[in-house]
Amino acid sequence: MSFRPPAGGRNSGAYYSMKIIQLNIWGGRYLKEAVAFFKQENADIICLQEVTSGIFTKAESSDVQGIDVYEYIKKELGYDGVFEKCFSAEVDGDISHRGNAILSRYPLTDMYTEFYDYPFTRFDMNMEGREYAHTQPQNFIVAHVETPQGKMRVMCTHMAWSRVCEDTERRIGQIKKIITYLESVPDEQTLLCGDFNIHPQSESLNIFKSYFVNSGEGSIQNTLNPAVHPVFFNGDHPQGLAVDYILTHGLDATFVHSPEITISDHLPVIAEM
Known about the structure:
This protein is of the alpha+beta class and 273 residues long.
């Protein structure tokens, strides 16, 4: 699938392949480094999870501490975008949020959001350990990207967490909800990007294969950052684990990789179509 480059586009030829970045941005912990990476890669579409503001933004750089991560990235890149909150919290009258975002070089239209099993709420993040993860509201967002070659559906989600990324009833239910949605809309070229919190051999991922192709299958073994992610130190997955995906429907990925760079506790997944 080829696209004409915009003015100042990545390639100098008449056509170029579309570049996609998937990243769990970890509440903007390395926000400035992430933005520099996005600019360097010059991607056409960026899908992000754990996009935050306020108390949820714990950036290393003090000048962006507490900032609205989505608005900051959108302004820095000059991209169109859509952000949808999964949950929020209020502290001393200030409301903070966390959610998912799609950013695009091209215009976005026909946005849609659907929550899984728990609706949007003002969520208590002070629960013991990670117990909040079992009832944390989560959603998937949908947008159509108006490329020069026509519309393409892009979906972005962050799925339920479990300690060792095993199959769970809740996550399987989330996947089935996405498939049900896709069966209710026209068949189109589609990207689904996200932090699925599932490993490549899981039954959960096999359910997705009824509709999608895993663009990184066979080439990506780990998407967790060995420099900072706790699974490398607590014994859960000392070898790492692939939990972030770019799935395709009606599109062929020509090059997929996950560079080892510290812009989050996850590694970015990059695909070219």
